[in-house]
Amino acid sequence: LLPQPPKVLGLQLLTVMEEDRWKKRWVESKHQMDYGKFQLTAGKFYGDKEKDEGLQTSEDAKFYALSTRFKPFSNENETLVVQFSVKHEQGIDCGGGYVKLFPATLNQEDMHSESEYYIIFGPDICGFGNNKVQVILHYQGKYHENKKTIKCKVNTHLYTLIIRPNATYEVKIDNQKVVAGGLEEDWDFLPPRKIKDPYARKPRKWDERLQIEDPEDKKPEDWEDFEYIPDPEAKKPDDWNEAMDGEWEGPLIPNPKYKGQWKPRVIDNPNYQGEWIHPEIDNPKYKPDPTICRYYNISVLGLDLWQVKSGSIFDNFLLTNDEEFAEEVGNKTWGIRKDLEKQWRELYEEIEKRKQEEEARKKKEKEEEEKDDIWGTEEERNEEDPAEEPGNDRQMQEDDADRAFPGRNEEVLVDQKDEL
Ligand SMILES: *[C@@H]1O[C@H](CO)[C@@H](O)[C@H](O)[C@H]1NC(C)=O
Ligand SMILES: *[C@@H]1O[C@H](CO)[C@@H](O)[C@H](O)[C@H]1NC(C)=O
Ligand SMILES: *[C@@H]1O[C@H](CO)[C@@H](O)[C@H](O)[C@H]1NC(C)=O
Ligand SMILES: *[C@@H]1O[C@H](CO)[C@@H](O)[C@H](O)[C@H]1NC(C)=O
């Protein structure tokens, strides 16, 4: 028996994209005139120069709005898997790294941040400690954010969202489960199942005191609790006239036998009943809804983003109803090239660091020379900015421009399934 081929929902992955081909498949919105441009590139470091080409944001401090359409489908009674990879090679400081799924009614040429969507999924980063994976789901005219925080990562990562027809979900990063559970529990789509019984009252005599003062404990007879006593040595002055001066009161002195305020000892309360727990009842406003996250005519995948520092590369988009297939595709794309990319990234970062150190050293030398040159004899200084010398960056860009775009390979075959 042959294994059943995976049922493919909608868009398949586009790991290898020819320059003109991606432009045919993706539509730039014209809602705003100054959206940032995407470019097709594998970036500064990668596992495979051709296979790791993806869509990169190329201009700083811009909004981006690009989308691609596929045959409409519904996830009624079906699992929905949304998967893609994103690499933030720029050291992202603030920006979105997520995808959006839209209904067929979206006008791609007019797509913008307020366009109605079904799902936002992926990392969202802005500032220190403010990075998370968004899973925002549309339900009855409202957008609901995931209540469980999912931390995201930088570098290149594979993001997978699974929504199952039995109202469970899972989020995976790099094919590892990071969170899973029930849709009802982890989003506030519905009112809670249980509420506190509004008629239940704590009994007036309910004893919640863990400890009490011992009622048996008595103050000893000889307990001195006067802090001050009249000075026994003091004498009423002979000329004290009670009629004129009032009753004589001698001065007070500290009581040498004073023991402090007496307090009964504290014991465990023998009648302690525990903390009163408000009984719960079924919430009359709660009604289960099997249509949560059931979407019809899912038909557009969009990159609708704001980025301060650009350079994120989106790749390996996949929509399917087969969890295992998605995992396998993840393994065969991101998975087999991640280690190579990591090695290259480390090398690249090392080179960048050395370059910066070298520049700092040169700058300091120049400053020293200028300090020594008090007579200004060295007037014709070399004005060339070391930063403008052709460096590795430029070299890499030239290589990119020279590159011959490859033909289709086996990964594009997957892409073709979408056209079936
Ligand atoms: C989904 O399942 C329900 C219940 O089994 C069935 O009535 C309905 O026709 C199914 N929908 C689709 C699109 O298969
Ligand atoms: C939901 O479906 C998944 C996959 O079929 C299964 O592993 C899981 O146990 C189900 N969960 C519930 C609560 O039905
Ligand atoms: C999906 O789109 C088709 C074609 O436009 C339309 O006839 C149908 O009503 C839509 N389905 C839903 C559930 O919106
Ligand atoms: C994906 O790769 C992991 C790690 O090598 C492996 O455990 C898993 O079985 C693979 N999954 C599929 C569906 O090939």
UniProtKB/TrEMBL annotation:
Location relative to the cell: Cell surface; Cytoplasmic vesicle, Secretory vesicle, Cortical granule; Endoplasmic reticulum lumen; Sarcoplasmic reticulum lumen
Positions of the UniProt region annotated as Disordered: 211-239, 354-420
Gene Ontology MF: a single term: carbohydrate binding
Superkingdom as given in the UniProt entry: Eukaryota
Key words of the record: Calcium, Chaperone, Disulfide bond, Endoplasmic reticulum, Lectin, Metal-binding, Repeat, Sarcoplasmic reticulum, Signal, Zinc
Similarity section: Belongs to the calreticulin family.
Designated name of the protein: Calreticulin
